[in-house]
Write a structure and sequence with these properties.
Blueprint (H helix, E strand, L loop, with lengths): L3 H31 L8 H18 L5 H6 L1 H21 L6 H41 L1
């Protein structure tokens, strides 16, 4: 078992790494779209996907909040799955040339998204179990 301090460090590390990758790639996309300073590259979109997957895996480690217990697992699961998969579809749509590095990064991102989806589902089951336990305690009182 991991201690709370280890979980906190791992959460902050994965989330910050994912967000840094996401925003750096987003800035590169913006610069390449609006100026000639950078050539247009499909690797920027795949780097955004990679950062998005890493950030979602990091968010799994975040402890379950009281608001998530109050809303239940259905709201948590639906929102997270939609955010995990719907937003990156636009990034994949913008890729023009599927070269070897792009395909490799897409494969790595797909693995990260599958792992993140499984972890989100696992966390929703934990939320359901904790909500059921809280409901059972309230009924006993």
């Amino acid at each position: 078992m991991m201690t709370e301090k280890t979980k906190d460090i791992l959460f902050k590390t994965l989330l910050s790494l994912g967000i840094v990758l996401l925003f750096c790639a987003f800035i590169c996309v913006l610069i390449s779209d609006f100026s000639d300073a950078l050539p247009k590259s499909d690797l920027c979109f795949t780097t955004m996907l990679l950062g998005w997957g890493i950030a979602w895996i990091g968010s799994y480690i975040l402890p379950i909040s009281a608001k998530e217990l109050e809303n239940g697992p259905g709201c948590f699961l639906t929102l997270n799955i939609l955010l995990l998969f719907i937003l990156p579809i636009g990034w994949i749509h913008n890729i023009e040339h599927f070269t070897t590095p792009v395909v490799i990064m897409l494969a790595i991102s797909a693995v990260l998204f599958i792992v993140a989806a499984v972890l989100i589902y696992k966390k929703s089951r934990q939320i359901k179990a904790l909500a059921h336990e809280d409901k059972k305690e309230k009924n006993q009182e």
